[in-house]
Structure formats: C-alpha cells, structure tokens
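Q: What would this chain look like folded?
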Amino acid sequence: MLKLAIYGKGGIGKSTMTANLAAAFASLGKRVIQIGCDPKADSTMNILGGVRQESVMDYLRDHDNEPESIDEISKTGFGNILCIETGGPTPGLGCAGRGIIATFNLLEDLELFEIWKPDVVLYDVLGDVVCGGFAAPIREGYAEHVLIVTSGEKMALYAADNIYRAVQNFADRGYADVGGIIFNRRNIPDEEKKVTEFAKERGLEIVGDIPRNDDINHFEEMGKTVIEGDPTLPISKRFLELAGRLLEKEQ
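A: My prediction, written as structure tokens:
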C-alpha cells in the first residue's frame, strides 16, 4: 500500500494536487482513498463533482452515536475513489487538529483499511502549522512518505522548510520521510532557480513539476479534475506520469 501525505502552505494548491493525483492513480487501475485533513473540508470536492461532503466532525456533532460503518462518513467519486473529510470544530471553538485525531481513531475502529484494502491512500494536510493533529499523518504511521507542495514564493518556501524540519524531527522514530517536492508553478521571477536550490540544499527530489495551467481552473469550475475532464491533455499527462513515478519508486 502506498501511503502519501501531501503538505504545503495554505492556498498553495495541495487539494488540487491531491485530487488530481488520486484521479491519476485511479485511472491507472488503483484502488484509492483520499482523506482531507483540513477544517475547510474541501479536499475531495473535485472528485465528487463539485459537491462538498459531510465531514466526520460534522457527523459526530449532528448524531448521538458514532457511525457503525464507513459508508456513513464517506462518499465514492470519480474512479471509485473513496473520499473522507475530517473537518474541524465549530469555527472559533476547539482545536482543529483534534478533528484529525478523532477521525483517525474512528477510522481505525471501523477498520477502514482492512475492509477497503486500498492500493493508495492520500492525506491532504494543512501545512502552515505542523503540530498536534496536523502532524498525525507523519508521526502516527498513517503515511509513509510526505510530498511537499511549493511554488517559488517566499512564504510557500518558508512553509515548505517548516514541514521538512518537522518531518526530520521524527526521522529517528521510523515515521514518514520526505518523498520529494511537487513544484506547483506560479510563474514568479527566478522561480525554477529558487525551488531547485531549495530542494538541492535539503537533498530532496522534485518529483513533480506542474505548470500554471488554465485547464485546471476550467475543470475545477465544473467540479472535476483534469484527469476526469480530459486525460489526453498535456497537464493530465503530467499527473499520470507523476502517479506512475510514485508507484515505481514504491516497488
């Protein structure tokens, strides 16, 4: 099972990268689970036709009992991808990271992975703050590899460095490692040089290079990934190639 956590600064395109990767893995015949670990609960919308699904935390608030099956807190979308959103507390109340911890504990109780038997699991994680529940995919053994999404923008690289250092802090405990960088271009001056130097200084590989592309926005307006919208597009082939490369590295 390939278990990846996708981290990066808020707004850097983590959910876009995660959803398109999930769709690419599914198109390659893999059984995929995508878990959104952000209080906004919007990671899986473009797998589900633009529909926002009920998060686990919303379910727990609205029901007296915990769910008895995965079906009650998940939906399947394009490519039979199983979609789950952790959600978070009522805005202004409580710790968002605890929503992730509560969800992960519940998924263990419901034996998600034993029952569903996925080939690939993707965690889409808010990376501005790598502490508490937001660090759970790294330190609790849920993910084996972390992919950091960044552009060449200063704050994106700053967040990427924080994520890298957080993962390094767990390195001696046998937790997730940094599997590489997904370079999500914003077309700023000297962007390629900045990201390449950042990766080189930390001994990281740029595993994916995603150009700024209007087709991504076009299909997101329709609630789709580019893989679903048109798998023959050059941008779709980028995601398919990245998915294939990640699968090869795991073999």
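The longest helix spans residues 234-250.
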